[in-house]
Every structure is written in C-alpha cells, then in structure tokens.
Amino acid sequence: MLNHLKHFLLVSFSLGITLLSLGGCASNDDSTSNNGGETVLRVLNWEDYIYEADSSSVEDGYPELDVMDQFVEYIYEKTGEKISYVYDTFDTNETMFNELQTGKMTYDIIIPSDYMLQRMIANDMLEPFDEDFIMENVDNYLSPYLREIFNNIKATSGNSGEEVSLIQYSLPYMWGTVGLVYNPEYQSYVDQGLTVDEVIEDFSSWDVMYDERYKGSLFIKDSMRDVYAVSVIHAYKDEIAQLKEQYLPADETTYNAKLSEIFNRCDDETIALVLEDMLALKDNSFGFEVDSGKNDVVTGKVAGNLAWSGDAVYSLDEAENEDLGEDAKTLYYSIPTEGSNIWFDGLAMPKSDSLNKELAQEFINFLYDPVIAEMNMYYVGYTPAVAGDAILEYVYDCYDLRGEIGAEDEEEYVEYDISYFFDGTIENSEDAILHVDEEQWNRQLRAQYPESSDLANLAIMNDFGDQNNAVIDMWEIVRNNSLPTWAIVVLSVELAIGGGAVAFFIVKKVQKNKRRKLHREMRKEA
CA-based angle 344:346:350, to the nearest 5? Predict the structure, then answer.
C-alpha cells in the first residue's frame, strides 16, 4: 500500500557483493491454474486487502460469502459458466515485481502500487485494457477526481517507447494519503505545558517531526519512499512557502504542478539534501517501525507515527475502543499543510501467454460495483476508488450528523466538502458536502477522504527511474546505525557530486507486512 515498501538494508564496507532476496509471494504452477477443466481466475493481492466473511462481518449484515466467492456466483448467474479461482498474496511491491520477472508465476490480476505500475509498464510487463471491452461499473462509479489523476500519471512504454497514461493499463483499487497520527494529550506534551490546541497546530506541519519539544515521541516508517516524501518536502519548505504565496488560492492547478515537481526531485543535489534532512529526522524520532506503529500509538508507547491513511483509521478506531476503559484515548490524523503524498494501489493485468483477459476485466468491473466496494471498505479500512450512492450512504452512516442523505440537522455542525470525489456518480453533488462534528477535520474522516481544501497540497510520487539506485544508497546510510560521522559526511559529498568511489554492498531483508483485519465500523463523532 501507500505504498507498502518495507526495506531493511544494511551497509557493508566489503570488497565483494552479497545479495540476498527473500520473496514473499505465494506461487502457482500449471496444476493450480486449472480445476477439472474449469476456467480459473488467478489473483495476486496484498494480504487482508479484500472482503472475507467471518462471524463479525455477518453480524454486521454483510454476506456470508467472500468477495472472491461472490464473483464466482456472479459469473455463473451472468453466463452459466462455472469458474474457480487461485488467490495468492504478496508482501512488498519489490518481491512481487521480482517474482513476476522470473516468469514462474502467472496471474490475471495483480494490485501493485502506483510507482511500481510505472516501472512495470516501462518493463513491458502489463497488458493494456481492451478499448472495446465495456466496464459499466468503472464508467459509472470510478471517482472522476481519481480518473483524472490516473489519466495524468505517465509512464514510458517498454514496448513502443512512447509515453502512455497509467489508466490505459491500470485502474485504482484503493487510495489514500500519508500523514501523522498523534495523541495531543501525550504525557510528555502535558508535562511541557503544551495544550491540546497547541499540539494540534504543531502537527499541521512536518516541522513537528524535527522539533526538540517532540523529540523521541514519534515513530517514522521503515519505508524509503514514505520517508523520502517527508524529507524532500521539508528540505524545500521555503520554496514551497513562496509558491503558496504566489499561486494560492487563485491558481491551485499551477501550484499543485509546481509542488509535484519539487516532490519528485531526485537529482544528486536533492538526494544529498534529503540525506541530511533524513538524518535530522531520524535523530529526533523514536525510531523506525514497519507495522507496529499503528498499535504502539494506541497503547501509548509513542505519541504518534508517520502513517498511511488506512492504518490511521485503524489506530483512531482502536484507541477509542470502550474495552480499553481508562486507557482509551482520542487520536488525531493530520495531512501537513506543506504537502504530502497521495498514493494508489492499482488493478492491472500482467502479460503472460495464459492471461484470461476478458475474465480479468470482468473481475475489475465487478470490484467497481459500489456494493462490493463498500464491503471492501468496511473490511480493509482503506478507501476504494469507487464513488456512487452506496459508498456515500456508508460515509453518511459513519460520519454525517444527519445519519442519512436528506435528513434534517438536529445539532451544530461544520461542512466538510468531498463532492470532488462523488461528482458525476450521484444525482446531487451537494449531498457530498457533509455535516460533521468539527473534530472530524482531524480524525477518521480526514484519513478516509481529504477535504477539498487539501487537494492542492497532495502530490503523486513517481518511480525514481534511473535514480532509484542512488536513492537506495542514500537510504542505506540513513538506516544503518554504525557509520561514523566522518563517513556520512564523505558519502553525502559523494552523492551530491554524483560520485561512486565508495562501494556499498547490500543485503536485503524483507519482513512480511500483515494488515490486521478491521471488523468494526468507523465511529461517527456525534
């Protein structure tokens, strides 16, 4: 997810290269790709990233069948054909990419993150959609906001060498932002005399992660791309502030384009600046976390952490669980005003001789049924790219003080505009201007759906391309704890001038990223 990148990289001053890759993909062979002559749909997805029925979900009124089994029934009812499926999971984009490159695995549907989709297109690994295949649900319910973004994300085709749009090869499945989950009443903040309002204000900026008052209270993600996103924004914050003054609020489009350019800088000079910034960030943090941060902020081990929006929803829900008794707490989610990453995981078809293209496209269309998308949203906790009435009704049930569309207000509220997401998929776009408790500007709703005023500050992080190895080298320095200061200084200079005199030899470790299942509805703040 956000991008789901989990690297553990150790630097070694050695004269030889040791390369160890630990893959996390389940695999299939010819025997698992057919079932007594039945047509088989082969899907490779992130773990716990689709609705799976259990007693809790059934009690909440959801079907007893998993989404995959529902698709089997759907195809039988539509065509009379009996199909089966193979459903495997992977842990990182990189292990998925490497395994697919070997050709040992064949799938009809994969769900990589945005930057990996770009890389796979560049390597001619993805099959484009058929222009004449009708995907009615996609046409009717793909959020127009996300459609435009996917259409504007470009990649160079490894087949033709031409620039193509991501939407020709992939459609968004889940999307979200990267921000900060935090407890404004954390004891060390209280001890310093910081008020809740002061902490909330501080957490509206990435500066909080470098602030001595918050030293040692925040986790950062053990994720190269996510930490790079924070540091590149922070390193160029003065330039960004000037752009804000120049273009906002009159010209959000131009401002966002210029912010995106900064966000995607990865030249040698920028990498050197980011290295310096990351080291300062690391020094002020509690440490790196892979998947534990979303629970550690609930238990109070830390005050907050750098988080993907879906994990933020999990943390906020868990923290206010009545079962915690006196340990229950109110957490918040911030999208810092300097800007942040908007990320996607996309549905795509990998090229192979055994690809069942028609069935794959049918499955994508099925996932775009708002009823199916709402099930996935309930179960996974992340936000689907699907709009429409069923999704909006779910949002109302979770957040809107009226409880249902068209009801009258019975108490004070603030407006929260997410009409940008639903425009064109519902009859009245004004229904998507929610009436919510003021706290939801910094709580679950903000994590699920950024408010319209956030959009200009959100940028796509592209694949690093030819600079990927240079960024990895920089990340190794940050992650390694044993390099002396003089070596860091020398290596910073080397990076800045594009040098390569010092050899780095990498041992890659991949730790499986498991999403904990979310089996409760988000609480409406009434």
Answer: 145
Rg (CA), the chain: 23
Q: How many residues does the chain have?
A: 526
Q: What is the pTM of this model?
A: 0.84
Two structure tokens written together for 195: 């008020």
Distance (Å, whole) CA 225 – CA 391: 30
Confidence check: pLDDT of 172 > 90: yes
- Give me the mean pLDDT over the 86-109 stretch: 93
Cβ–Cβ contacts within 10 Å for residue 351, how many? 15
| Angle formed by the axes of helices 468-479 and 268-284, nearest 10° | 20
Strands 170-182 and 332-334: antiparallel
Please work out, in degrees rounded to the nearest 5, the angle formed at the alpha carbon of residue 346 by the alpha carbons of 416 and 427: 40
Helix (H) or strand (E) segment spanning residue 84: strand 83-90
Q: Is 290 helix (H, G, I), strand (E, B) or coil?
A: coil
Q: Residue 322: its pLDDT value, please?
A: 87
Mean pLDDT, residues 233-254: 97
C-alpha span between 247 and 239 (Å, rounded): 12
Q: What is the pLDDT of residue 451?
A: 97
For residue 304, give the nearest of 209, 183, 168 by alpha carbon: 183
Residue that has been written with the tokens 């199916």 in this structure? 372
Residue carrying structure tokens 């910094």: 442
- Pick the closest to residue 298 from 443, 176, 180, 181 (CA basis): 181
User: What is the Cα–Cα distance from 114 to 117, expressed in whole angstroms?
Assistant: 5
Ramachandran region, residue 465 (left: φ > 0; alpha: ψ -120 to 50; beta: rest): left
Alpha-carbon span 188 to 182, nearest angstrom? 13
